[in-house]
Design brief:
The protein is mostly helical. It has helices at about 5-20, 25-30, 35-50, 60-95. The chain has a domain at about 1-60: Arc Repressor Mutant, subunit A, CATH 1.10.10. It contains 4 helices and no strands. It comes from Glaciibacter psychrotolerans. One of its GO terms (molecular function) is DNA binding.
């Protein structure tokens, strides 16, 4: 079962990792966390800094989980729209080459 870390602890670990004095693997080992947890926290902090995800709210993970779901759905919708746009571009290119009757 995963451990629950406080938001303050996560911010502190991310701050140390951003200093770049040691590798992420070494920092994770020093703080007693997994490298994947540190990587996840680093990505979350980066998204938060860019304003793509709001700060954690309430019980911690509940706010982040909701934001992650919304972000995942938005990215899925973007991929679908990009695919539809590509189909339309190909259709226009195909039809512009065809000899249409007058």
């Amino acid at each position: 079962m995963p451990k629950n870390y406080t938001d303050e602890f996560k911010r502190d670990v991310v701050a140390v990792a951003k200093e770049g004095a040691a590798t992420q693997r070494q920092i994770a080992k020093d703080f007693g966390i997994s490298k994947s947890a540190l990587s996840t926290w680093m990505r979350a902090a980066e998204l938060q800094e860019r304003g793509l995800v709001g700060p954690p709210t309430g019980a911690g993970a509940a706010g982040v989980a909701g934001d992650a779901v919304a972000l995942r759905e938005a990215l899925k919708r973007i991929r679908l729209l990009e695919q539809e746009a590509e189909v339309m571009r190909r259709a226009v290119a195909y039809l512009s080459q065809a000899q249409l009757p007058k």
